[in-house]
Structure formats: C-alpha cells, structure tokens
C-alpha cells in the first residue's frame, strides 16, 4: 500500500518532545513513544477540563459523548447531559483557539502545527455512549470544521492512502462503528481497539492508533493481581502494541503511584489517571 503525506516537508519521522518523552509519527500513521505518558481519564470531571490535562502534559484526553441531533454532549450518563457541556465547547473550540494562536497549519512543523508550547500532539479519545452508527457521522462533521488541526486520512481508488498530519489525533472508543469507520474513504478519527482481538485484526495504525484493555481482563490473564504475575502480561501487551505503532492503555486501574510505577516499568505507552497534576510530577 502506498502512503502519501500531505505536507511540503516529507520526512520519515516527525518528532515533538515533552518532558522526558518523545512522540514520533511515520508516513503510514504509526505513533511511537520513548517513555510512558499520561491519559486523562474522564477529563470532563476535572475542575478545568482540557486545560489541566494540557498543563499536566497528558498525551491523551478522554471525553464521553452522547449524540442529540447534530450535537455531541459530554457526559458519562444521560442524566448528566447539560446544554452548555458539548464536545465543541469543552474541547474542540479551545483546542482550535490554541492551534491558531500557535500559527495554525504549519507544513514544516511536527504534526503539522501545535496546540501547546512543546509541539507535542494530543490524542483526543472520544468515548461513544450513544450508538456509534449515529454518533460517528456527527463527530466527523464537527471535526471537519477545524481545518488543519485534526489528522485526516483519505483512501484513494488505487488503494493508496494520504495522511494529512494534525496536532490532534482523534480515537473513537466505546460503541465504535468499526466496519463503518474501516470502510470510510475519508475520516478524521480512528478506532480505539481492544486487546487482544483488535490487535490481531491487521487494521493499519492510522485506522487504529490505540489499543485498550481493562485491568480486570489482564488480571484474569495473569491469574490475579500479584505484581509478579501482572508484570509479564503487561509487558507483552505494551510490547505487542508498540511493535505495531499503536498506543497501549489499560483502564480501570487503581489510581496510585504503585500502579503507575508498574505501568511505567512495563513501558505502557499511556497510564490512566484521574489526577493529571500528580501524574505529571510522577513522570518528571
């Protein structure tokens, strides 16, 4: 399969550094980290959604959404839906403001521009709480309204793939319309896969940039929560995901330094947390 990068500067690796970690991407859309970074779980519950996560140097930020008409409301449960808490208002609009303030689209910049001083991209994980077949088209329509900021992938009639870099990489989790997304000829978002089934699906990294697994599932595979049992299972998951140019994440983990250390030692690319500021201090 032939890949085309839509930028005037074609390089094998685009690099951005953040603290002790580096994030790189390749022409075929693989993502690679040199060290573990943070994932702001249910970020919308923070006192300052998005801002705290960016200041804490989280690579990945999670927002749960429900679709209502042509709008995406950020909430974990339906009773939490509020008219002013939309994906655009909490995340997309402020990210685009940052993107424009930092010069907008820059073909010679890592990831085609930036939304923070380090130039490191962010992965915006949008967790669908409503049905994917109705939620995803609305998400794609909204993402298209932020030119240059969102990574875009186009598949051409000859089978070639063009990837237009952007500093925001969107991954869909939850009720994912996998076949709809796989068959799309153009899309702004990719799939958050599941371990092990999706990891072995042969879907390219630009389509499936992340693979996640619950802590309980990995604990069962390890025969319990003993660190000595968990460590090799975590290592295999992180290594297999990294070899494919994807980001590995474990959800439902205890949110403490002992667990963070276990994940970091396993070279898990993304460490789940509800405490971005403390995670920043831990990773420094």
From TrEMBL:
<protein>
    <recommendedName>
        <fullName>Altered inheritance of mitochondria protein 6</fullName>
    </recommendedName>
</protein>
<dbReference type="GO" id="GO:0006629">
    <property type="term" value="P:lipid metabolic process"/>
</dbReference>
<dbReference type="InterPro" id="IPR017946">
    <property type="entry name" value="PLC-like_Pdiesterase_TIM-brl"/>
</dbReference>
<feature type="signal peptide">
    <location>
        <begin position="1"/>
        <end position="19"/>
    </location>
</feature>
<dbReference type="GO" id="GO:0008081">
    <property type="term" value="F:phosphoric diester hydrolase activity"/>
</dbReference>
<keyword id="KW-0732">Signal</keyword>
<dbReference type="InterPro" id="IPR051236">
    <property type="entry name" value="HAT_RTT109-like"/>
</dbReference>
């Amino acid at each position: 399969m032939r890949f085309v990068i839509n930028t005037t500067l074609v390089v094998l690796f685009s690099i951005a550094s953040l603290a002790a970690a580096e994030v790189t991407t390749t022409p075929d859309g693989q993502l690679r980290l040199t060290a573990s970074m943070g994932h702001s779980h249910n970020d919308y519950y923070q006192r300052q959604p998005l801002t705290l996560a960016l200041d804490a140097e989280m690579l990945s930020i999670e927002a749960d959404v429900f679709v209502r008409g042509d709008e995406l409301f950020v909430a974990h449960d339906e009773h939490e839906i509020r008219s002013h808490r939309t994906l655009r208002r909490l995340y997309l609009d402020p990210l685009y403001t940052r993107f424009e303030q930092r010069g907008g689209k820059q073909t010679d910049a890592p990831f085609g521009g930036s939304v923070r001083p380090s130039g490191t991209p962010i992965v915006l994980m949008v967790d669908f709480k409503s049905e994917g077949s109705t939620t995803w088209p609305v998400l794609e329509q909204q993402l298209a309204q932020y030119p240059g900021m969102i990574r875009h992938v186009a598949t051409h009639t000859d089978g070639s793939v063009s990837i237009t870099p952007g500093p925001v990489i969107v991954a869909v989790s939850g009720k994912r319309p996998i076949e709809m997304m796989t068959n799309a000829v153009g899309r702004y978002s990719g799939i958050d896969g599941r371990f092990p089934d999706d990891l072995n699906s042969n879907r390219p990294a630009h389509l499936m940039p992340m693979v996640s697994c619950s802590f309980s599932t990995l604990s069962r595979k390890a025969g319990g929560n003993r660190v000595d049992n968990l460590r090799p299972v975590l290592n295999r998951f992180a290594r297999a995901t990294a070899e494919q140019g994807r980001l590995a994440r474990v959800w439902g983990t205890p949110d403490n330094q002992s667990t963070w250390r276990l994940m970091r030692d396993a070279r898990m690319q993304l460490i789940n947390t509800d405490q971005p500021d403390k995670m920043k201090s831990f990773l420094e």
